[in-house]
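We give the entry.
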Amino acid sequence: MHSRPPFGGPAAAQPALWHGWLRPRGPKAVVVVLAIGLLMVGVVGLVYATGGLKYVYAHTMYLPVLLAALSFGVRGGVLAALAGGLILGPLVPLEVATGETQPAINWLYRIGFFLLVGTVVGAASTAFKRHLDWQAWMLRHNPLTGLPNQAALLEALRANPADALGLMVVQIDNLLEISNTLGYEAVDRVILTLARRLVEHRPPDAQVYHYHPERLALLLPGATREEIEAVALELHPILSSALEVDHVPVYVDIYLGAIAQDGHIVHGDDLVKKADAAMAYAHDRATAFALYDEEVEGPSREAMSLLGGLPEAIRRGHLVLHYQPKVDLTRRRIVGVEALLRWNHPDLGLLPPGKFVPMLEGTELVQAVTRWVLRNACRQLAEWRAAGFDLTVAVNVTVRNLMQEDFHHFVDSHLRECGVPASALEIEVTESSLMVDPRQVLRVLAGLRRHGHPIAIDDFGTGYSSLAYLADFPATSVKIDQAFVRVIEQRPRVESIVRHAIGMAKAVGMHVTAEGVETASVAERLQAMGCDYGQGYYFSRPVAADALMALFYDETRWPAARLPRGEDGRAHPG
């Protein structure tokens, strides 16, 4: 027995596939009945022609019985069995030549066997067709909700490609958290509840689909952009209202995306992709709803295309590192640089990290890219130290990197290969990455710190900062985000925030670097607040390593700090 889904099943909607000859109806049924009758007449003729019932040819009557059972089930099998048994009954002689009649037990026994075969085959045929019905239904419906699935949605979109319509998708964003907390059954109940809400509150002519494990869709025939937006504004509070699972109130995080087709012929797959892109756009901007336009898809399509080309870019050497100096505000010397990734794209030119890194950070490909950055930054650092410059290089790592237990072993292996001390390679992490899995991040950062690496908290002040949080993590410095630094002269309240952040970091023994320093007056103001280092366009834009060498030697600006020299007069990298 198949369990019946909440919103219908095969018994409610038979697939068209089995409305043909396996389930004859109307004219087809008449043809099958005539065929059964002709077969029976033919069997009687065959029996007479071959000498009577004492010969084996009477068994040919099983053919019309089987045909009736296969076509019409138990009822057809029983009726055909009775008809065939009676036709071959007392009126048909046992032997035609002598006119010998058959005993009653003969034809009654034959009818019994015909009935047995007709009943068994009819029942098996009915069960098999029901199973085929279920399988055909499953191809076009979601087994949990019973709603039409992606195949049915695409079929509906292809049926009338030129019609004006709206397609809205509903993303349930926090199912993983619900599953981790309450289990898989709770997730199923949440999806069922939301599907029921959508079915109950949809516009009268709209159809609901369950086209993705975490997404529902609403097809709105003839809807304009304004009507779609009105439906979204009405549905979102209904769908996102808290529901109860096992007496636990559960908040459901819902994002809606939609597209309006105005009569232009658009492929069904493209409509779904565009609605999904609008939903992703709403998710990224933390808004309840987004309606598709070119602005919605442009960035994501471009980023996806770039992401696909990254493995080839690594192999062909199209990735490059630029470096931005970090200047000691008191000594007025370059004491370090931050390694910043660039992509020298053969068609698009030099791409900044904002074009491809955000999407990269959500994939495992970030592991290969981070390793490439670390490898090349260590080699460049070794060259600078061999030339006598006492510098550190800061490399940004992501939360995915910090989830790797052996990450610090990989870092150390490259340092040993290049002959660079761990104290010269600074690891930068953002505040938000520290909060994804604090225990794991703390364990990996502690391992890096034990090996001697400085740890910097990037974008300080934009996320989760607190004195207790600073004390927990093994960081040696913080970097104040440029969003604060750039406006400290225009906004006194921001200046107070920066001053407080510097004081808070200093209180736990950390150094402070200010990003986004663009003028001399800002640099002086930060120095007066107790900030240790500055980084920004006032000192230098990010440039290639060769261009940076000229700045290292420029004694009139911010020359690079030098390594101590031994008695032989040579720099000693240590």
Remarks:
- The chain is about 50% helix and 15% strand.
